[in-house]
Amino acid sequence: MNDTTLQTIIANRIRARGRITFAEYMAACLYEPGLGYYTSPGRKVGTSGDFYTSITVHAAFGRVIAREISAMWRSLGCPEEFTLVEAGAGHGRLACDIMDFLAERSAECYRAVRLVLVEQEPSLAEAQAVLLAAHRDKLSWLTPAELPGFRFSGVLYSNELLDAMPVHRVLMTPQGLRELYVTLHEEQFQEVADIPSTPALEEYLQRYGMPLHPGQEAEVSLAGLAWYEGAVAALQQGFLLTIDYGWLKAELYDQRRNLGTLLCYYRHTVEDNPYQRLGQQDITTHINFSTLMERGEELGLQNIWFGDQARFLMAAGMIEELDEIEASDLTEKEKLQRRLTIKRLIMPEGGMGDTFRVLVQSKGVTTPQLACLRGIGP
Ligand SMILES: C[S@@+](CC[C@H](N)C(=O)[O-])C[C@H]1O[C@@H](n2cnc3c(N)ncnc32)[C@H](O)[C@@H]1O
Known about the structure:
The chain has 378 residues and is α/β, with parallel strands linked by helices. The chain has 14 helices and 16 strands. S-adenosylmethionine binds next to loops.
């Protein structure tokens, strides 16, 4: 199978039904069964893939999150049943680092935990089961469609999930808002701007966006919003932890980002052309944290922490992780190597530390006592 197969499928779809929205095009490129970027074989994340995520850098990322998850369990009064849901679990690395830490360091919390993985690509369940073999009796799965109907108390967390959801693209013109569609011109994909396919785009921008300037392009993640509403409905009591790259609306829809934030990743190079290497390159956009915070509040959530990944990790336990490395029996060279690797997770200016943001929200928790809420000084 190669990208021409996917190209033909999308082109036939356009021939049969007419132009499609960019969101439909992006959904096919990422999730067409057997052919999309995330639904076809091959390693996507890590050195041999196309991009790194924090979880592939060092287990300390998952260990710090596990420390905070343990504090969340205590904030809920140490319940005997405590459900962790990871959405967009990929190969299961993060879940494994979290469960290993809880088993090793927080035995009571670990006893209470059951882990539910949700992943768009069902074939990854096999890899997840192998990686999480030591925690097999605690592990189960849900499909993305089942998540909104699931009811649980505990923590729903995700790392780089919402940036991988299909987006609509819009363009402001002197005549008003237009949507970018994908059509065929001389057998090539071409973008055309026209009246939006749904009033939901304009409504979204009014509620969670900013006024766009003529000539400005932007993305609207209706799929992300729908996913989020389903996730909030599923969580009965506990915490939502969202880690991703993105901004609040004023920054995301700032005129400086005149062409939006859409990027493509292929073998660690970044491009902005989504019409090449169909199904073989990642297509991604920065997420709108204002949507989660504002919609979350409307749905009864409290926004309890929002900021850079670096500050979150340092406050939530990275300092302790680094202290433990210092105090360990490792050689000086090994210690240095670990420190340098971990630095990538917290480095500002181009590192992951200030590119990624963390949002912690709670539902029905009177006094959340989390490590991220403590000050870490300047
Ligand atoms: C960018 S990858 C991140 C994977 C992993 N969390 C990490 O940090 O390495 C996004 C993942 O989310 C999955 N995904 C996309 N939409 C989803 C949904 N609605 N529910 C669950 N998983 C989804 C994709 O299949 C893909 O594995």
